[in-house]
Amino acid sequence: MDRGLHVLLxxxxxxxxxxxxxxxxxxxxEPAALPAQQPQVxxxxxxxxxVEPAAxxxxxxxxxxxxxxxxxxxxxxxxxxxxxxxxHFTEDLFAEATVGSSKxxxxxxxxxxxxxxxxxxxxxxxxxxxxALGWNALPxxxxxxxxxxxxxxxxxxxxxxSTTFAGDDHFTVALGAGLRVLANDWIAVHLDxxxxxxxxxxxxxxxQTQNLQVGxxxxxxx
Amino acid sequence: MNRLVLRPLLACCLALFGASxxxxxxxxxxxxxxxxxxxxxxxxxxxxxxxPATYSVERDASIQLLRQRTDWIKxxxxxxxxxxxxxxxxxxxxxxxxxEVRLAGPVPAARTEHRWEVGLATxxxxxxxxxxxxxxxxxxxxxxxxxxxxxxxxSFSDGWLGTAGIAHVFMPSWRVSPFAGIGGGxxxxxxxxxxxxxxxxxxxxxxxxxGVRGFLTNRFLLQAEYRGYVVFTSRDxxxxxxxxxxxxxxxx
Lengths: 222, 252
Fold this sequence. Notes:
Chain A is α+β, with helices and mostly antiparallel strands. Chain A has one domain (61-221): Porin (Beta Barrel), CATH 2.40.160. Chain A has three helices and ten strands; from the N terminus they run ααβββββαβββββ. Chain B starts with a helix and ends with a strand. Chain B is mainly beta. In chain B, the strands form three sheets. Chain B has an eight-stranded antiparallel barrel with strand order 8-9-10-11-12-13-14-15. A four-stranded antiparallel beta sheet of chain B has the order 1-4-5-6, with no helix packed on it. In chain B, strands 2-3 form a two-stranded antiparallel sheet. Classes of the chains: A alpha+beta, B mainly beta. Chains A and B meet through strand 1, strand 2, strand 3, strand 4 and strand 5 of A and helix 1, strand 4, strand 5, strand 7 and strand 9 of B.
């Protein structure tokens, strides 16, 4: 026991004593080992590389508005207006959020009966949003006359969202296709068709409704 | 006009206004000039591989970088010709001072070194359809702080669910990695208008999650997730709801 403690103490002492040794040698010994007049044999060939981030505008966002017409199943066609914002991930893929609003007309039953109103005025409001993934399937150019060519793309979108109509929110799948033509470097014109598909039990029976929209829009890249 | 529409419209008008001002600012600011180091760089008529190459610039030519869209950079040569060059052909360009130029874009290291993730997902929440927008911040490559907003659209009721939580990605450097997480949030449910009116209710909720995510490219993830929710209702017993979602995530 006593001997063990002795050994431990000695070991500790030896460790402490040995610690400053090399450090002191480094601090004092090195300048002596390398005299100033001795030429440096190897010059480091590695240069510091400067990297500068290029100060260019990255224009991957696209935002704008559109007007068009939407055919609300059983309720006729109405004027539609809305807005879209998109983010372009690559030259092929983009994500797009769209909102739109319209006001449904009357069903043929309401028109014929004259006085029957299936929905109140506020329930006729048709408002939707959808979040979609888009694919520029056919990039190309649109030619106007012999001298003018504008970059364009035919794209397809697949999205999901919600449609508020007749006082309820409906889960909606939105399938779309469109043509985007770039008027200049940052302004684009869109012509697109979109089908909003949702289940509705408004007229008594649960059924799938197809609500087709055609729109003309303008967007800006920023 | 509906508020849902009015606000984004306003935002878009502002964005358009902002963009036009940015264009003015660009016109005033001199674009950066670089020197081509590749043997040549193809200039195309549009920002995509499908557009024809209309001109080429050779090594040591100095070009101005005008704007970047995804991986394509619009450049102007000394003699005034303009075209779009792919980022890969400009990665070795130098500034007139000899410094390297870094262009924005994805690199393989981003798979483990990225900070932010945003994503869209859709799926099933206890029989209702769900549309989710989610975001995450990588505290470390393994640990994500995440938050999401879910719109629930069911046959009998609609609702909103907002959550925040953490997730542990087991193997962030693997192409496909499992992850697990926990979190909590608020669930708000309102019954459909065509049903007998019952009260809307808002309850707090907590979840445990397990999922798998896989890299599609250097900037995309595909993510599938299961969450088991416990809803702390004001009734005698808590409600348990299963959620399954699948979605894609963009990271940067």
